[in-house]
Amino acid sequence: MCCFRIIQLNAKKSSPFIIPALVGAFILAGSLIVFFQLSSYQAQIIESNKDDYTKVIENTISRREGRVQTISSGIIGLYGSSERVSSAEFDRFAQTILGSNSEILNLFVLDGSTIVESYPIKEYVGHDFDFLFPDYPTVVAGQKAMTAEFAINETASLVIAVPFGYFIPEGTILSEQYKLVLLSPIDDNEVLYSVAKSGGASGSVVELLQKEKDNAITVEYKTNLFGHKLKKYYDLRYVLWDASFEAQSYEHTIILVAGVVLSFVIPVLLVRTNLLRARLQEKSEALERANEELKKVEKSKDEFVTMIVHDLKNPLLPIKAYSEILLSQKLGQLNEEQAKRLHSISTSAITLQKMIQDLLDANKLELGKLRLDIQEGNLSELVRRTMSELEPEFRKKGVAVSLELQDVSCRFDSMRMGQVFQNILLNALDFVPDKTGKIHISLKSEGGNAVITIADNGIGIPKDKIDGLFAKFYQVSTDKNRRYGGSGLGLSVCKGIVEGHGGMIRAESDGEGKGTTMHIMIPLAGKSA
């Protein structure tokens, strides 16, 4: 107030235009401050919304892809547990799986390209898949669908028909006005799926205006789902426009043009700025809550899978035990064919039991429920004991094993580390040649760590495949005619166990045909607190 009076006194002495000029300058300065402040906050809100929606889309696709992988693992496990699966068995199993995955359109089992099993649409059985569905995108039950292919064995494959709307279902985007389009990976002008919402009403016919395209975000997600028709892994490319992505530039223009007469509105605009901040906070909190709910659903799913897998183990125990009793011929003599069939039952039960244990351990690792009983022990003795247990397998295949073991003691879980050694050695046994295969195991103490190296002269690994080797369900070869089976869980479980000891595991290979070396390192003093 004192300064204003001084200005008034000086103005009377100089010019009557000074006060209006100063007031105008103050108003203009205030208007400019508000203009730039609003522009900055609005740009932050838009970028934050774009980042949040990108994360929501990527996380939702990841979870949905995981459900498809789980379904495929279950069906592959069904076929791996039996030499022949009847149509009734397949239907019962498929009905159980689709009971909690009703969005899946259909499950196909192909022998070559012939459909031998189909659920729930049975009339496809006996037809050639590529003849029934010659075009891309494949239309199943009147809907455009992804046809994800998984190898069951050398001749059979599983195809899961998933509608393109499955990955980002309606309701995923928490907004009252948005447009979402899924573009074909082959043709940018072809729309595989679209959904829009405006004023509370939803629709599936979407047309993006040029202005909306300019402000939209493109989210590209590379899946691990191999397309039967596409003959490559699916890349999902979504274009999302949301009303919150549009800058309200007309407000800024009004502020600049009417700045002289809007001096009283400046406080109101600042309140509006705070409201914009509050809206950003509320939207962020809503998105966080939605993500937390999705995490809870995912955790419930993992706990359910763990329970189901645990229940699957129970019938295997009597199957394995009775087959071993019969093979011992204590209950009577067996002819050669009977013994061969019983041996196949026993081997399949053991294989399925290992797959179930790997899946159970993998889910325990994800839920943080895998407990380690870490005690002081002699690691070299554990390696020798594991080799002794596997020696008949190596002898049967004619594989030479050499040991170079120092006497190393450290803190570790004997059962779980034995599981790691056995898994890696059996992998090496699978991939080395008969009669000429060689495996070298070394153990030494180095830099406060126990270092285990397992090297083989097997088929090796392409260098571009090594990074994904320890990922859950990862397969180096996804060809349905691949020679080597497995669930893709063993090395993922090994990684979790080794890291649970505070250690690390990595693979090394110079390429195909040049063998593989696995390196394991765990602290001598055990995992630090």
From TrEMBL:
<keyword id="KW-0175">Coiled coil</keyword>
<keyword id="KW-0808">Transferase</keyword>
<dbReference type="InterPro" id="IPR036097">
    <property type="entry name" value="HisK_dim/P_sf"/>
</dbReference>
<keyword id="KW-0472">Membrane</keyword>
<dbReference type="InterPro" id="IPR036890">
    <property type="entry name" value="HATPase_C_sf"/>
</dbReference>
<feature type="coiled-coil region">
    <location>
        <begin position="270"/>
        <end position="307"/>
    </location>
</feature>
<dbReference type="InterPro" id="IPR003661">
    <property type="entry name" value="HisK_dim/P_dom"/>
</dbReference>
<protein>
    <recommendedName>
        <fullName>histidine kinase</fullName>
        <ecNumber>2.7.13.3</ecNumber>
    </recommendedName>
</protein>
<keyword id="KW-1133">Transmembrane helix</keyword>
<dbReference type="InterPro" id="IPR005467">
    <property type="entry name" value="His_kinase_dom"/>
</dbReference>
<keyword id="KW-0812">Transmembrane</keyword>
<dbReference type="GO" id="GO:0000155">
    <property type="term" value="F:phosphorelay sensor kinase activity"/>
</dbReference>
<dbReference type="Pfam" id="PF02518">
    <property type="entry name" value="HATPase_c"/>
</dbReference>
<keyword id="KW-0418">Kinase</keyword>
<dbReference type="Pfam" id="PF00512">
    <property type="entry name" value="HisKA"/>
</dbReference>
<keyword id="KW-0597">Phosphoprotein</keyword>
<feature type="transmembrane region" description="Helical">
    <location>
        <begin position="17"/>
        <end position="38"/>
    </location>
</feature>
<dbReference type="InterPro" id="IPR004358">
    <property type="entry name" value="Sig_transdc_His_kin-like_C"/>
</dbReference>
<feature type="domain" description="Histidine kinase">
    <location>
        <begin position="307"/>
        <end position="526"/>
    </location>
</feature>
<dbReference type="InterPro" id="IPR003594">
    <property type="entry name" value="HATPase_dom"/>
</dbReference>
